[in-house]
Amino acid sequence: MENELIDFHIHSKFSDGIYAVEDIINFAKSHGFKMIGISDHYDTIKTVSIKKNKLLDYITFLNSLKNEFNLKSAVEIDFSPRTDLENLPFDQLNSLDYILFEYVQDPLWDGYPFWKLIDLLEKINVPIGLAHNNIMRNFKDVDMDEFVDVLETHKIFIEINANDIYTILSEYFFNLSEEFFKLIRNREIPISVGSDMHNKLDDMLKVKIGLTFIRNLNLERNLQLFLELFKND
Ligand SMILES: [Zn+2]
User: Fold this and answer.
1) Torsion, CA 64, CA 127, CA 89, CA 71, rounded to 10
2) Domain count, the chain
3) Helices (H), the chain
4) How far is 209 from 144, CA to CA, in rounded Å?
5) 233 in a domain, yes or no?
6) Which residues, including other chains, have CB under 8 Å from residue 108's CB and lie 6 or more apart?
7) Residue 222 Cα to ligand 1 middle (Å)
8) Ligand 1 centre and the CA of 202: distance in Å?
9) Largest interatomic CA distance in the chain
10) Which of 58, 141, 145, 211 stands 20 to 30 A from 64 (CA)?
11) Would you say residue 165 lies in a domain?
12) Ligand 1 centroid to residue 174 C-alpha, Å
């Protein structure tokens, strides 16, 4: 897997990243990435983001680059009152390869509860995942077995994000949630990896830390399940 770098959480100039998608693809090509996903912020007051009326341009542009590289199109949705969740453009969102949801059930960021995401799934027919979620903190009052059942039923993937922001006292959220990852090891729950790169291309190489975690915890099958979500493309 060392030579099979992948990164499914990357920001470009379409939102608050500083690089053009072409630059990101060139970096990926020259550093041995086999697949990447661009996941710019969708319309949120939190940060620079793709406005609703620009989403189609974004998706069309990403699709036009797919013959250059193994590229997946995505957005990251701020799952909080900062986003107009009532009026999401589902037709367009459903033409993406996947959707990341950040701050799901995260009290520090006013994240909406997990059940609200399940409600939203009635209108979404592409893979969705929880981005950089500190699961053992945000879901500490939840019955873990039930939570895992719901994730499995809805094929919701979990992202392992190796950006330094997602740490507490230098421990990555995924390390802090090791118990959770052991629970999903033999379950049909996909796992993705991401760097949340914004302004330093080298940050994408941090996915190696996430991939090492996956290997050490024997979560390769979960990662495979994630990659298989794209097989019918
Ligand atoms: Zn992000």
Assistant:
1) -10
2) 1
3) 21-30, 55-64, 90-93, 114-120, 135-138, 144-153, 173-176, 178-184, 207-216, 220-228
4) 25
5) no
6) none
7) 21
8) 16
9) 45
10) 211
11) yes
12) 16
